[in-house]
Design goal:
The chain is α/β, with parallel strands linked by helices. 40% of the residues lie in helices and 23% in strands.
Length: 417
């Protein structure tokens, strides 16, 4: 069984060793001796859990910089959906590999994805070595024939995912209440319940979505899902900007979870007043996501933590809310809990998903408060080494095959854009 030994690394303010055996952390203690283990020099480095990205569209790395500075619906209808219509399996494969490369470079070990050609993403994630909860993006546009195709395709995609390692699991991603009919949403909920799957859905992202929901269904988005009977702990909603007090309690009562995406919310001007404080007080688990590279332009969870914290303080005019520690927790332990991954914490017995942060850079000088420096001063380039499932995926900021990945992804993007 493969063993790694991280020597003399800073963990929670103390210097210690971390022994990894197979895919899990076996021992955390000073002065561990294991002559058979591969040793990693942890001096001048700090160990943190790998980041958990709770909302993205991996292969949209291909559309980075395409259709910038536009409102959400115009951006989707004029720039994104027409190009996505021409996506091939090969495009998604290289776009997803580029996403994995970027996530590895910035410390992410696990993400939940919502996109097309899900088998291509699964193949890319398997090869790159990180964890993926890979959801099939679903649209029926209120068309019965398309709805039938969704019901036929999802079980096949689910079965296809079972061929991969335990790092890859399946989820379902109905796009939004304005692109997926109520009957399909209810079918997806029943299928997810029967198969213990996460449902990942964009919800309450814009004022326009709320107005459309009221006109079309007679309910706000959250109340629409409540009326359909599909709120449950299986549901992870992305964005959740336009949610009132009563809806927060409805979500909490049903165990629904939320992914906050500050970068895309600001860039698309969807809104800024994400109600983190009220959600957390109600007991709603809140993770952090980057969204896709076409709407946030990068997959850097360190930057996403900073944006989440600063935005939360700014709109409330309160510097004491959404602290650095809360942002770090949302991006690690809370994200792991949301995605049902036994990681997000560096503890004996947990999965060995670990970042080593380079402390010998200006952002950590002086290192008076490590978490503060990580959230407010650093960015993803501070990650020197990344270990996922007990395997070294990056060391000294080098990832195997990165040049080819960037070249092939560029080729695919130029054809599409």
């Amino acid at each position: 069984m493969n063993r790694l030994l991280i020597k003399s690394v800073e963990l929670n303010g103390s210097t210690t060793d971390i022994l990894i055996e197979g895919e899990r952390i076996r021992q955390i203690a000073p002065n561990i001796i294991d002559d058979g283990a591969i040793q990693i020099d942890g001096r001048a480095k700090a160990a943190i859990p790998g980041f958990i990205n709770t909302h993205t569209h991996a292969a949209m790395t291909l559309f980075r910089g395409c259709g910038d500075d536009m409102p959400l619906m115009r951006w989707l209808e004029e720039q994104i959906w027409p190009r996505e219509a021409h996506l091939t399996e090969e495009d998604v494969y290289w776009g997803a590999k580029l996403a994995c490369l970027e996530m590895i470079k910035s410390g992410t070990t696990c993400f939940i994805d919502s996109y097309h050609h899900q088998p291509a993403t699964a193949r890319a994630v398997e090869e790159m070595g990180i964890r993926g909860i890979l959801a099939s993006a679903c649209f029926d546009n209120f068309d019965d024939a398309k709805a039938q195709k969704v019901r036929q395709s999802l079980p096949k995609l689910h079965n296809n995912t079972l061929q991969y390692s335990s790092r890859i699991t399946y989820a379902i991603a109905p796009h939004a209440i304005y692109t997926v009919s109520p009957s399909t949403l209810q079918w997806i909920d029943a299928y997810a319940k029967a198969n213990n799957l996460i449902i990942h859905l964009h919800l309450a992202e814009t004022e326009g979505e709320v107005a459309d929901s009221l006109q079309r269904f007679g309910f706000t988005p959250v109340r629409h899902l409540h009326h359909l009977g599909i709120l449950s702990p299986r549901l992870l909603i992305a964005h959740g900007l336009y949610i009132d007090d009563e809806e927060i309690h409805i979500l909490a009562d049903h165990g629904v979870q939320v992914a906050h995406n500050p970068a895309s919310n600001m860039k698309l001007a969807s809104g800024h007043a994400f109600r983190f404080v009220e959600m957390r007080r109600a007991g709603i688990p809140v993770g952090i996501g980057t969204d896709g590279c076409s709407s946030s332009n990068n997959l850097d969870m360190v930057e996403a933590m900073k944006l989440a914290s600063l935005l939360g303080k700014s709109w409330r005019k309160d510097p004491e809310v959404f602290t650095a520690a809360e942002a770090f927790y949302a991006a690690t332990a809370q994200g792991a809990d949301i995605l049902h991954v036994d990681a997000g914490r560096i503890e004996e017995g947990r999965l060995a998903d670990i970042c080593l942060i380079d402390l010998n850079i200006p952002a950590f000088t002086p290192n008076l408060n490590f978490i503060s420096n990580l959230v407010y001063a650093a960015n993803g380039s501070c990650v020197d080494t990344l270990i996922c499932n007990g395997r070294i995926l990056m060391q000294g900021r080098k990832v195997a095959g990165e040049d080819e990945i960037m070249q092939q992804a560029t080729r695919c993007a130029k054809r599409l854009c």
